[in-house]
């Protein structure tokens, strides 16, 4: 076989380079005008079966229908949601990797010295999804029955009481920090990769209490599988009308709601973000989604909040707010 001459070699190299570019464009789905052409991974940075996972699966179905491709939930858990968020931050910025995260996006910078990503600089917000109340719940054999009893029991037995949470930077961790600060005690925290598995252990009595979204606790409260002490919103909620607020129980400092939003890596083209935002808006107006959320004590955000602009504003504000609170030692 005759070796290729210089002109032939240049032509081969040119052809290979062209093929490489085409393959790269195909594998990264790089044509924003044609988006989406393939299934989309949606990273949930907590375990399957927990509240973030539940809300994601609610909107994934109508978003898939709207986009004409499947949104495939990928649970990438660990370190309070920072493992999954870190993976999403470095994903190909082509719209085929989307992150669902919650309030933890705004608390992680203050809680982690070595956070591998910048929640503001490394992502483009797609839109807010929902804001979920939290509840303080105990295992059925945990002694206290009312919120007032819970407060005094935890204060008097802090050295033996255990609290489940989903890792440093998670919403349950944040609520636990507010609670311990308000009660002036420190209890033993038991971290899980999500509050789905934490709830299973709470129901089994392996841990005493947890503060978690209603999207993970309403079913167990209604079924009598856990004791419910209080809801962390200023007003009582419709789904659990008998549950007092933390303020009614004399603890207004334990007030927090968990907002959720969708993100893509920062370099993702705006046309792609617009497609995702439009599909999110359709999903949030879907009556099945509205009903499912209502059953679990929450609701989709208003359409003007399911936008990149409103989401970016809230993320910025919340990062500053929690940075100040945690930095001032409220969370320690
Ligand atoms: N509710 C969890 C948290 O505390 C996360 C989850 O499992 O969805 O952040």
Automatic annotation (TrEMBL):
The residues forming the signal peptide are 1-30
Q: Gene3D superfamilies under this entry?
A: Bordetella uptake gene, domain 1, Periplasmic binding protein-like II
Sorted UniProt keywords: Receptor, Signal
Family matches, as Pfam families: TctC (PF03401)
Q: Which SUPFAM superfamilies match?
A: Periplasmic binding protein-like II (SSF53850)
Q: Tell me the domain of life.
A: Bacteria
Q: Does the keyword Signal apply?
A: yes
What protein family does this chain belong to? Answer: Belongs to the UPF0065 (bug) family.
Name of protein: Tripartite-type tricarboxylate transporter receptor subunit TctC
């Amino acid at each position: 076989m005759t070796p290729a001459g210089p002109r032939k070699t240049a032509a081969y190299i040119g052809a290979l380079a062209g093929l490489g570019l085409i393959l790269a464009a195909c594998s990264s789905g790089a044509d924003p005008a044609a988006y989406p052409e393939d299934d989309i991974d949606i990273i949930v940075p907590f375990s399957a079966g927990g509240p973030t996972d539940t809300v994601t699966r609610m909107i994934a179905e109508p978003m898939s229908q709207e986009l004409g491709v499947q949104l495939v939930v990928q649970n990438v858990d660990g370190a309070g949601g920072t493992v999954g968020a870190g993976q999403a931050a470095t994903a190909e910025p082509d719209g085929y990797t989307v992150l669902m995260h919650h309030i933890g996006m705004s608390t992680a910078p203050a809680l982690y010295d070595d956070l591998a990503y910048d929640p503001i600089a490394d992502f483009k917000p797609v839109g807010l999804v929902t804001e979920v109340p939290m509840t303080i719940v105990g295992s059925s054999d945990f002694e206290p029955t009312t919120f007032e009893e819970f407060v005094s029991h935890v204060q008097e037995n802090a050295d033996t009481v255990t609290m489940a949470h989903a890792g440093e930077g998670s919403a349950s961790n944040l609520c636990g920090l507010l609670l311990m600060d308000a009660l002036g005690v420190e209890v033993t925290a038991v971290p899980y990769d999500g509050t789905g598995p934490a709830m299973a252990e709470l129901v089994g009595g392996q841990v005493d209490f947890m503060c978690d979204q209603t999207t993970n606790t309403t079913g167990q409260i209604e079924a009598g599988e856990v004791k419910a002490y209080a809801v962390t919103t200023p007003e009582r909620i419709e789904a659990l009308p008998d549950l007092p607020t933390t303020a009614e129980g004399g603890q207004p400092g334990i007030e927090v709601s968990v907002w959720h939003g969708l993100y893509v890596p920062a370099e993702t083209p705006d046309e792609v973000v617009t497609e995702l935002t439009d599909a999110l808006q359709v999903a949030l107006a879907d009556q099945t989604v509205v009903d499912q959320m209502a059953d679990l004590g929450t609701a989709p955000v208003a359409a003007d909040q399911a936008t990149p602009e409103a989401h970016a504003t809230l993320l910025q504000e919340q990062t500053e707010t929690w940075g100040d609170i945690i930095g001032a030692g409220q969370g320690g």
